[in-house]
Amino acid sequence: MTAKPHPLQRLLNYGRQYRQQIWQASTFSIINTILDLAPPWLVGVAVDILVQQQNSSIAKFGVKDVVQQFVVLSIATVIIWVFESLSQYIYDRLWRNLAQNIQHNLRLEAYNHLQELELAYFEDSSTGGLMSILNDDINQLEDFLNGGANEIIQITTSLIILIGGALFMLPLSITIAAMLPMPFILWGSFIYQNRLESRYADVRDKVGNLSARLANNISGITTIKSYTAEDYENGRLRAESDAYRKSNAKAIALSAAFIPVIRMLVLAGFTALLFMGGVAAYQGRISIGNYSVLLVLVQRLLWPLVSLGEIFDHYQRAMASTNRVMNLLDTPINITTGHIRLPIEKVRGEVSLEHVTFAYNSGEVIIRDLSLHIPAGKTIAIVGATGSGKSTLVKLLLRLYDITSGHITIDEIDIKELDLYDLRRSIGLVSQDVFLFHGTVAENIAYGSFDTKEDEIIKAAKIAEAHDFIMRLPQKYETIVGERGQKLSGGQRQRIAIARAVLKNPPILILDEATSAVDNETEAAIQRSLERITINRTTIAIAHRLSTIRGADCIYVMERGKLVESGTHEELLHKNGIYTNLWSVQSGLS
């Protein structure tokens, strides 16, 4: 098994498209660091002027008067300060905009990839966990790019300047003594971040579990209340939150120990320079000005190393999040689009299934060697007991899953060869589990037909017998339906779903238990609208209530993934088989 690259390498590979922005931001970070380290040098020059006077470093450029030397130094100070402030403004904007761009594009790319994944992936994943990746993990990357990347560049630049300046100004023995703690600081930092890596990976997993629990409970709040399970769910949430807290505590225990250790190492280097450099200046081996510069410079450069703990903390959080986001992006898309285009206006609607077998990843076979032909424009119905495989056929037709063997064709074209957009655009689905988005009634009817005019929306609602109840709503077509349409009744949601299908005007219509969860009056209204919209349209009705499909051109009975009976309503009753038994039970004859 090939090992995955380090998360930083994965992030850098992804960041190649932002190479120019990264170089610009990094360049101004380096410029700002150099200019920010100028004050210690200015202090050293000022001391040099006072001590050396006509022999100072500025006097070597022809400015002998001490007052004039301070004028030159003051002008240089103003110029350096202005450019240092300007460079900070530029790098800050560049890094923050880069963070926003990467966050924005990465979230969109991850979401678009998520939409391309097959239905099985969502059935194996929690909504809260996916939300945690798209929101929290990508925000962690943003936080790191906002400040952490710049701090790493500035500390690295500072160390190079410090080491170079020390070698230039100090005897080798003093330089070695002052820099001796440096390898231990860097070595300790890498050991620290390696140990922290696994702990933050566990933190990200725990926050995903917590998000999943919260999303699940909020979605199921009606069930929680109706079963008085508030205390039980509080306990489950407490367990998830406590696991997250304990996971964070393990990471904190390690990160908190880092700074005190680094402080002691920094103290050792600074003390060595203070003593040995002072003795060297007293003995005349280095100038007092250089000694002053180095004291301030080391103070400015060594102490920021203490912040390495916080930087690595942000870094490891970001790397753990990077792994989760990149793992999502690396998830293979198993259902890929075909290359044959089939414009909706050219679809006749002839559907054929030839020796179709389908099994889930678990190996459980749901459909077994099933063959079925549906002529264009005809209405067929599929009935059977729960678990017989009826609704699975719908998912296979839409290629939400791919069949294990056999062929499914539309107008004699294998659906695997068809462009996915064209395939799904040609099929309208009205299911028992209607999903309405948080928005207005009009927006939900026009979903998928986004450029539809208001009069077309109203016309579709009238065909679906939804117009009358919509006009009784507080804001009529502009009424907000609530999340998942919770402000509407089941029958109202169903009729809006039918209006949505009417507006889509697909050549093939699938009705998956479209009336099973409504009352008799609503069922009658829905049935009237369905009779109108199925005319001259290939219609596949998956039904539990047999009374709703009596007029189908052909009715198929499924049992354990196979078609075991077929015929019209009257023909099936005469066969005295499974359908007859179902009809007897539902009509009260048995």
UniProtKB/TrEMBL annotation:
Keyword flag Transmembrane: yes
Membrane-crossing residue ranges in chain numbering: 70-91, 159-192, 251-276, 288-309
Domain ABC transporter: 351-585
Localization per record: Cell membrane
Gene Ontology terms for molecular function: ABC-type oligopeptide transporter activity; ATP binding; ATP hydrolysis activity
Statement: the UniProt record of this protein carries the keyword Transmembrane: yes
PANTHER family, A to Z: ATP-BINDING CASSETTE SUB-FAMILY B MEMBER 10, MITOCHONDRIAL (PTHR43394:SF1), ATP-DEPENDENT PERMEASE MDL1, MITOCHONDRIAL (PTHR43394)
Protein's recorded name: ABC transporter ATP-binding protein
